[in-house]
Amino acid sequence: MIKNPIQEVTNKLQYRAIGIVKGIYKPHNIEQINKGTLTDHEGKVLETVVLGKALSLIKKHINLKKNYFWIVYPRNKDTSNLHLQVAGIWDPYTLNNVNKDNAEKDPDELLEELNLNNNYFSIRGDLVYVNTQKKEAIIKICSSPPSKKFKNKTFKVVVEGEISLKHLNNFVSLDVRRDGNTLRLNKYEIIEKKKD
Question: Average pLDDT of the chain?
Fold first, then answer.
């Protein structure tokens, strides 16, 4: 069984913004490898930071001259300025125990079998802004379950695409595709309507 790089949703109202991007990671400084760039197969360069849990994987298992599938969190302020936070690396042969039947398959094929593909992002959260003229939507993501002790950590993701204004403040699930520095909406689903 191949581990899915983007896990199934476990809760109907699960917030998330996660994707998978294939590319070569290059640190700005080899002494401090947590900040750098990710270059995709089209040569598009994305500013990238590596989060703690992925750092040890890079140090122990990753050849920085090779392409990998990076599991990433998207961050942006507008539709043309995407940067990524690396949360993990999906390499079914080096980092996962793949059964022998799949050993000959290309990782791209394995990804398709999981109903995923390069540059796919799953974004789930509250639709807080819609600009029908610019064809933009902003989704608010709560990065941890609400708690009275801690101020809720939230961030927003800007997506290019058309969503009706009538869905404002509803909880939505988006299938998004990265195109260069832009996150483009493929389809969306209203998961829970706002209470009037």
Answer: 88
Identify the three-state secondary structure at position 165.
Answer: helix
* Start-to-end CA span in the chain (Å): 44
User: Structure tokens of 97?
Assistant: 């125990």
- pLDDT for 102 equals 53
Pick the CATH number of 122-192 from 1.10.1760, 2.40.50, 2.60.40, 3.30.1490: 2.40.50
Residue type, 125: G
CATH for 16-121, among 2.30.130.30, 2.40.50.500, 3.30.70.1120, 1.10.3660.10?
Answer: 2.40.50.500
pTM across the whole model: 0.90
